[in-house]
Amino acid sequence: MGSFSIWHWLIVLLIVVMVFGTKKLKNIGSDLGGAVKGFKDGMKDGSTADGAAPPPSGQVASSAAVDKSTIDVEAKRKA
Q1: Residue 30 lies in a domain
Q2: Less packed terminus of the chain by CB within 10 Å, N or C?
Q3: Does 5 map to a domain?
Q4: pLDDT digit string, tens, across residues 28-44
């Protein structure tokens, strides 16, 4: 009972495929692969030689680029 043989692993694999289905397992595999690729790209971008990181895509880099339709929450609290 020390280690599992190849037959044990094949039975476990068969049960997993029967429970989740091949389409679900394919989606999980592609999501996992995309996450690993994104992590590797992030690590590669983080180790740039010039040390200047680009600003995050969801944030404004400077106050001059602020849209006129944005609401200043702190100004409402002060008034």
Answers
A1: yes
A2: N
A3: no
A4: 899 999 999 999 999 88
